[in-house]
Design brief:
Layout (H helix, E strand, L loop, with lengths): L1 H24 L2 E5 L4 E4 L4 E9 L4 E8 L7 E3 L3 H4 L1 E8 L1 E8 L8 E8 L16 E10 L4 E8 L2 E8 L8 E6 L2 E6 L5 E7 L7 E8 L4 E7 L6 E2 L3 E5 L4 E6 L8 E6 L3 E3 L6 E6 L2 E6 L4 H4 L1 E9 L2 E12 L6 H57 L1
Parallel strand pairs: 2-9, 18-25
Antiparallel strand pairs: 1-3, 3-7, 4-5, 4-8, 6-7, 8-9, 10-11, 11-14, 12-13, 12-15, 15-16, 17-19, 19-23, 20-21, 20-24, 22-23, 24-25
InterPro entries: Ig-like_dom, Ig-like_dom_sf, Ig-like_fold, Ig_sub, Ig_sub2
Protein name: Basigin
Subcellular location: Basolateral cell membrane; Endoplasmic reticulum membrane
Length: 386
């Protein structure tokens, strides 16, 4: 405890000295400084640094190990067998992130973020007018404790369990995670935890993560592995003659398929080398393309087969190939319906006209009758006058 407090006071004193240097220069300062962290071997760590100044300062990362004879050495992107990644942006101010994966005990030590905007800061012979300001953080890499994980089945349920031996710090809780989503968590301080799933292995395959909360946290994986549960994207596909047909199958289960294959009923295995068939497979998805579809040759059932270390699985896709004229059939049907309707109307009108002719004659005779009456009335008036 005393050594840890002394270390923290030393880091604080160094930060104060760096801040004093920045104040004296009046051009560069830190907005955010990296924070000390504890991590386990095989874990990863990320440190963040942010500086401001005019002009915008450059940021570098340096490292000093725990060996008393070791001195600071600059880190660069791709160092330590490509385990070190450094990302920096210079827009209005400077930001930089260093991340180290697959940590080992040799990664323990002091990491220093340095910033400077002096034009001669990297000159080999000139001394910079403004010194580099710095901010430090300790990274403690602790040997990973032994963790055992297993899956058991009982009464239609899956029981996932984890147990850790000799944790480096007290446990403050547990958490179960699947596909980035927290399934359940608690505040129990025990060295074992379990999670129960209702259902079969095939329905819940995947990678589950158990986390023992603490400083640092301890995590382990529980894998529910099954043979491929292959399904067709569409169980029935349609294509036009001469076009390209596309059949797709996928595997939603874990682990991924290592080998995909396609075959056709009555034909056997299909290969890329055949010329008309193109097979593209990657991980849990496979695609079969059939060039220049033919009604006679290509209509039928196709089988996709996936294999991994736990077994095989397959699915069936039915392909129907239509003639190019098939697209015109709906239009021709509409035209035929219109022709039939016009014919019916024409016949109806043709039969209806003879019945209407007498009505027209009767209508024409009415005025004649009226004229005769008028002449009769005129003769009567003439006789009366005489």
């Amino acid at each position: 405890m005393a050594a840890g407090a002394a270390g923290r006071r030393a880091v604080l004193a160094l930060l104060v000295l760096c801040s004093m240097a920045a104040g004296a220069a009046g051009t560069t300062g830190f907005i955010k400084s990296p924070l000390s962290q504890k991590r386990l071997t095989q874990d990863s760590v990320e440190l963040y640094c942010e500086a401001i100044g005019n002009p915008i300062p450059e940021i570098q990362w340096w490292f000093e190990g725990n060996d008393p004879n070791e001195t600071y050495a600059q880190l660069w992107d791709g160092a330590r067998q490509d385990r070190v990644k450094i990302n920096a942006t210079y827009n209005l101010h400077s930001t930089s992130t260093i991340s180290i994966t697959n940590l080992t005990a040799e990664d323990s030590g002091m990491y220093e973020c340095r910033a400077s905007n002096d034009p001669d800061r990297n000159h080999l012979s000139k001394s910079p007018k403004v010194k580099w300001i710095c901010s430090q953080a300790n990274v403690f890499v602790i040997e990973r404790p032994e963790l055992t994980a297993q899956v058991t089945e009982s009464s239609g349920k899956l029981i996932l369990s984890c147990n850790v031996s000799a944790p480096p710090s007290s446990i403050t809780g547990h958490k179960w995670i699947h596909k980035g989503k927290t399934l359940v968590e608690d505040n129990d301080g025990g060295v074992s935890t379990s999670y129960t799933i209702d259902g079969k292995r095939e329905e819940h395959s995947g990678v589950y993560e158990c986390v023992f909360e603490g400083n640092p946290p301890i995590s382990g994986q529980v894998n529910i592995s099954v043979a491929p549960q292959v399904t067709a994207y569409k169980k029935s596909e349609h294509g036009n003659e001469g076009d390209t047909g596309v059949l797709v199958c996928k595997n939603p289960s874990f682990p991924a398929v290592t080998t995909w294959s396609w075959s056709k009923s009555g034909h056997g295995a299909l290969e890329n080398a055949s010329g008309r068939y193109i097979i593209n497979s990657s991980g849990n998805k496979t695609e079969l393309r059939i060039l220049k579809l033919d009604i006679e040759q290509d209509t039928g059932d196709y089988f996709c087969n996936g294999t991994n270390s736990y077994g095989t699985g397959d699915a069936t896709v039915n392909l129907r190939v239509r003639s190019r004229l098939a697209a015109l059939w709906p239009f021709l049907g509409i035209v035929a319906e219109v022709l039939v309707l016009v014919t019916i109307i024409f016949i109806y009108e043709k039969r209806r006209k003879p019945d209407e002719v007498p009505d027209d004659d009767d209508g024409g005779s009415a005025p004649l009758k009226s004229n005769a009456t008028n002449h009769k009335d005129k003769n009567v008036r003439q006789r009366n006058a005489n």
